[in-house]
Amino acid sequence: MKIGILGTGDVGQVLGSGFVKLGHSVKMGSRNPNQEKIKAWLAKTGANASAGTFAEAAAFGDLAVLATLWAGTENAIRLADPKNLAGKVVIDATNPLDFSSMPPKLAVGHTDSGGEQVQRWLPNSHVVKAFNSVGSPHMVRPDFPGGPPDMFICGNDTKAKETVTDLLKAFGWSVVDIGGIEGSRYLEPLAMIWILQFFRTRSGNHAFKLLRK
Questions:
Q1: Structural contact between residues 166 and 46, judged by C-beta atoms closer than 8 angstroms
Q2: Which residues contact 56 (CB under 8 A, 6 or more apart)?
Q3: Does residue 48 fall inside a structural domain?
Q4: What is the domain count for the chain?
Q5: Is 208 a member of any domain?
Q6: Is 92 a member of any domain?
Q7: DSSP secondary structure string for all residues of the chain
């Protein structure tokens, strides 16, 4: 599969490298593809990794991952051009965080969510919220003493969620589907629990699991 990554931070780099290790071809998109951090990522990731503009990465991918800071997400989508993502699965790994004070807080909530806004900005794409409730070091092959954690996902398209579930399972995750994209109203606050625990312990070595009987 060809995968476009929109964003060059830790999340985009970790997921991009993970997809390449699974045998996929990845193009990382940004405003400036010649950044040194992108060159370094390409050098260590190998021949199946490339870089381009947001629009080039969006057009390249059969599937795309949105891995931007929230403040730049709408503009990144605009630069990518929603037409380049029409009909495609878009994994929304973002959280709508306000960093005006620390720890950060949610900028959207209760009656709306970042995931729903992304779906509105990409009306012809199949947005699936995933990867937002764990730190980037554990996004690929999470290894915890209690066994594999759960990744909670949501989205409006069943087939899109099946595609994302297959990718998550290949990364070593168990998956819990909580329904439509409006479920982002609950998954984004779940991410805040992860964030507050990080600030309290100064460790990102935690994840969530739904216990079943």
A1: no
A2: 27, 29, 33
A3: yes
A4: 1
A5: no
A6: yes
A7: -EEEEE--SHHHHHHHHHHHHTT-EEEEEES-TT-HHHHHHHHHH-TTEEEEEHHHHHHH-SEEEE---GGGHHHHHHHH-GGGGTTSEEEE----EE-SSSS-EESS-SS--HHHHHHHHSTTSEEEE-STTS-GGGSSS---TT---EEEEEES-HHHHHHHHHHHHHTT-EEEE--SGGGHHHHHHHHHHHHHHHHHHS-----------
**pTM: predicted TM-score of the whole model, two decimal places:** 0.97
pLDDT tens string 107-164: 999 999 999 999 999 999 999 999 999 999 999 999 999 889 999 999 999 999 999 9
- CATH assignment at residue 15: 3.40.50.720
Query: Is 59 a member of any domain?
Result: yes
By C-alpha distance, which of 65, 59, 118 is closest to 85? 59
The domain of 153 spans 2-201
